Amino acid sequence: MLEKYFFEILIALVFIISLLSTLIFFLSRKIKEQKKLNKSVEHKEREKEKYILESLEIITKALVQEQCEISEGCIRIRMLLLNCHALDIESQEYIVFEELYQKLKDLKTHESRSQLSLQERSKEDQLRFKLEDEYCEKIIEASEKLLKEVKGFL
């Protein structure tokens, strides 16, 4: 009976083998593409992390050297820390950035600030200055520690 259907079985086997070979070829290509995409994503993430760390270094240096306002530096550092995966943002040393941010977040900025009356703007400035004075030492101390930690990653 095998001799009777030999060519039909052979053709079926050749068809199945070619079908499986084609499937393996396309799957291996898809795997290579996925690996390439993963490498690209990892590279972009490393570049983003490096950019965040470099930005943190610049801002913390500016705060330590008193080249920018405490409130502005604090807000920028807080935002960068939220996006930084290399640092422990919940570290007790860095909570001060979140504390000051929470007290400053309701103050007007940019266009909404320009729409305030002189009296309202002055009132917000006085509150900001008071908070900056209150947190100055803590922010600078935390900035110095953060700067040392960031330099360790760069």
Structural summary, described in words:
The chain is mostly helical and 154 residues long. 81% of the residues lie in helices and 0% in strands. It has helices at residues 6-64, 70-83, 95-104, 110-114, 118-153. The longest helix is centred in the first third of the chain and has 59 residues, at 6-64. It is elongated, with a radius of gyration of 30 Å. 16% of the residues are buried. The model has no long low-confidence stretch (mean pLDDT 93).
Percent range for β-strand residues: under 5%
Rg calculated over all Cα atoms: 30 Å
| Mean pLDDT level | 93
Helical fraction? over 70%
Could you state the oligomeric state of the chains shown?
single chain
What is the H/E string? HHHHH
What is the overall shape? elongated
Structural class: mainly alpha
What is the number of helical segments per DSSP (H or I, 4+ residues)? Answer: 5
Give the number of DSSP strands.
Answer: 0
Largest sheet: none
